Each structure stands twice: as structure tokens, then as C-alpha cells.
Amino acid sequence: MRCARRNVAGGGLVHEGDLFAALPRTLRGRVDLLVVNAPYVPTDAIGLMPPEAREHEPRLALDGGTDGLDVLRRVVVDAPSWLAPGGSLLFETSAQQSPALADAVTQTGLIVRIVQSEESAATVVVAVSRAADAATSDRR
């Protein structure tokens, strides 16, 4: 929380809690950008991580459950109702997990793509909610 408050010291709010439960309901359907830094390491793989990560990070910050996607799946289920039309959701995950996460995101109706950076050795799943006019035409 200290770090989050320091990051928004020039103006912004910090809400602490379990995923979306901490957010004011007035934000529902109005979030333009949702960036998720959730744990995605499979429980059995934590012991294989470099010591600087597994010894200095709280287990809660690393442990993503059996396949590493437990917390991310929870975000996926609720994210569409928080995103504004055209809003984006970004998750960091592993290259191996990204197809399963992309499938889960697609099932919510969001448009998904996987972005990989070889330079950073990073994989990000990007999901975008449909624009208001596209969402309206889909309901007809």
C-alpha cells in the first residue's frame, strides 16, 4: 500500500481489498484501462524460481494456484462489467499460460490478443471490450 500511495502522490486514489471488491461501484462500466499484476506462478513451480524472487516476495504475490491462473480467472470473470466501451484489460502471464488465459477472456466477449516481447521475456494478454456501437449491434 505504501508503494501504491507513493505512486499516486500527485493525485489519485488507492483502494485496498480483494480484486474488484475494493473499488467504488460508481466505477463499474467506466474503467478505460485495467492493468493486472496478479500472481501467475503455478504453486509447484515456486520452488524453482530464482532465490531473489521466492525468498523476498510474499508467497501471496507469487502463488497463482495449480496452473497459475486462479487469480487471473477471477479477474477475467468480472472485468467486462468494469470496463468502459472500448476499455482495455492487460495481464502479464507466461507464454505457456497465455493461450488458456486468452480462451477464458474470449468466453467473456472481450476481444483478445497475445503480445510477446523477446527483449523483455514478457508475455501480456490484452483484452478490449467492444465499442458501444458494436456491443449494441450485437444485441440486435
TrEMBL record:
One of its GO terms (biological process) is methylation. InterPro entries: RF_glutamine_MTase_cyano, SAM-dependent_MTases_sf. SUPFAM superfamilies: S-adenosyl-L-methionine-dependent methyltransferases. Its EC number is 2.1.1.72. It is an enzyme of class 2 (transferase). The keyword Methyltransferase applies. One of its GO terms (molecular function) is site-specific DNA-methyltransferase (adenine-specific) activity. Keywords: Methyltransferase, Transferase. This is Adenine-specific methylase (Partial). It comes from Frankia alni (strain DSM 45986 / CECT 9034 / ACN14a).
